[in-house]
Structure formats: structure tokens, C-alpha cells
Amino acid sequence: MNDTAYRIQQTALKLFTEYGFEGTSLSDIAKEVGIKTPSIYAHYASKEQLFLRLVEDVIVEEREKWIAQMDGERVEQLSAKERLRLLFDFYTDFKGMSIGQAFLKRVMLAPPRGLDERLRQHILQYEEKITDDLHALLRAASEEAGTPPVNLNRQVAVIYALIDGLLVEFQLYDAKTHRERVEAVWEWLWNGIMRGD
């Protein structure tokens, strides 16, 4: 990717995150990059193509960030409960989100009309990978604790719902209240896993 294409992407990412798909025009992006609007077409056929490319790139970036976090000796020495907590924290650390992660959250909560089906496919494919991680961690946690096997699909559905709910609460509450809620949700979730719910 050349420098201009990179600057277009970074600027588009910032503007789409801040103003949404509908609130950002190609001319807005071009103006901020310091180029004329037709120059964008040398790199992207349309605003939709640019937006979808950003979604794909951000999903890859977030996945690589998670894999990097789970790589290494320190993580291998953690219990399954601690590794599950790492995943929970990774997806509920809304304060520490990169701009790409913030963009992805916005896309998931309010997909642009006309792109929603294509976006849904990208996000569901990504979710399959997270689900595989969750299944492995939930099985390991259950085995380590000597509890009855958990209903994996049910637990995963609960975890996704809790993470999504915490994202909404992040927008509503001060940092202290939100942190308390994250801890309460984790405790409730872990107790449910230990009961085999």
C-alpha cells in the first residue's frame, strides 16, 4: 500500500469512527488528507469499498492483537480461568480500545444501511474464531475446576450478551461505576461456569 492509500485509510477510519458512514463523505476524507476527491478513486472504487476494506483490516488487526496477547510463556503458565479472564478483559476494555476497535464497535452497533448484510457476514466470520477460542477456554476451565461440562453454546451466547451490554453501559456510566459492573459481571459469569450453567 502506498503512502496516499495509507493516509486515505487512516483518515477514513478516524472520520467514520467519529461521524459514521452517512456522516462522512469522500470529499471530507480527501480534504483532510490534502488531496482532491477524484484522487481517492485511484485507490478505491467507492466509499462503500473503502468502508468494507477498513472493516476487513480492523478485524484482522484486532485478531492479531488478541493472538499476540495470548502468545508467550507468561500466558502458558496461567490457569484456564486466568486465560478466560484475559479474553473477557480484552473484549471489555473499552477505555483502551484502539481507533480501529472503536470503529468496529460502532459498525456492529449501527451498521450503515445497504451494507448491513455484507458487514454481518464479515462479523459472523470473525465471531466464529472468537467462539472457537471461547469453547477451548471454557472446556479447559471446566476441566481444571472439576465441574460438570458447561453448555458451550449457551455460555458463549451469555458472554457475547454480557460484553455487548457492558459496551452500552460504558457509554452511560462513569469509569468507576463501569469498572464495578465489569467486575460484578465477571464474578457472576465465573460462578455460572463453575456451576456448569
Give the secondary structure arrangement, pairings included.
Blueprint: H1 3-19, H2 26-33, H3 37-40, H4 47-70, H5 73-76, H6 80-92, H7 99-109, H8 116-145, H9 152-172, H10 175-195
Helix pairs in contact: 1-2, 1-7, 4-7, 4-8, 6-8, 8-9, 9-10
Number of domains: 2
- Structural classification: mainly alpha
Give the helix level as a range of percent.
over 70%
What is the CATH level 1 assignment of the largest domain?
A: Mainly Alpha
Overall radius of gyration: 19 Å
Fourth CATH level, the homologous superfamily of the largest domain: Tetracycline Repressor, domain 2
Instruction: Work out the number of β strands.
Output: 0
Low-confidence stretches: none
Percent range for β-strand residues: under 5%
Shape: elongated
Alpha carbon gap, first and last residue: 48 Å
**Count of helix runs:** 10
Q: Main sheet?
A: none
Q: What do the pLDDT scores average to?
A: 92
GO molecular function: DNA-binding transcription factor activity; transcription cis-regulatory region binding
Organism: Paenibacillus cellulosilyticus
InterPro entries: Homeodomain-like_sf, HTH-type_TetR-like_transc_reg, HTH_TetR, Tet_transcr_reg_TetR-rel_C_sf
Keywords: DNA-binding, Transcription, Transcription regulation
